[in-house]
Amino acid sequence: MIVLNLKEIFERETRFEGRYSLSPQDIKFPPDIGEIKEPVEVYVEITRDDRGYNVHLDIKGKVELECSRCLEVFEKDLSQTKNKHIERYPVEETIHLSPEDLDVSFMEEPDLISLEDLVREELILEIPMKPLCRPDCPGIDSPHLLFGDLEDRREDPRFAILKNLLRDPEVKDGST
Ligand SMILES: [Zn+2]
Known about the structure:
By secondary structure, the protein is an alpha+beta fold. The chain has seven helices and nine strands, in the order βαβαβββββββααααα.
């Protein structure tokens, strides 16, 4: 596990940057959401201000999801760039959030950041509630999928055009 001790780091530096390759085992992605099979590449850059830390994350990775309509497994790119602010939980009981606070993460211990936790959170935020293999996925109930054999394809106008092209002697001899 990669824990960044920011208190220690910023005793010596004014800016921290690092590149990491997080394995699927490191990330511990929730299996009921999806499966990460390849390492996720992360570039992180951190600066400090009087409220906490500004964290810039550049994440490159992908996840395997199950389509909520046809149940096929498909791959979704989760690559993203995020800027967030990390600060300690306010002492006051109510937190008044302003629009610019939406990317604020409050932590019990903002000086100790687990990179895996941070990256996992951003990856999960990118997963749609109902993942679709493609926007117009017809779903498992579609007759085309259930009876989608040659019989169907013969009716497909694109296939008919292709067949006609192959049969057309002018096209066949066009190269001579
Ligand atoms: Zn689908």
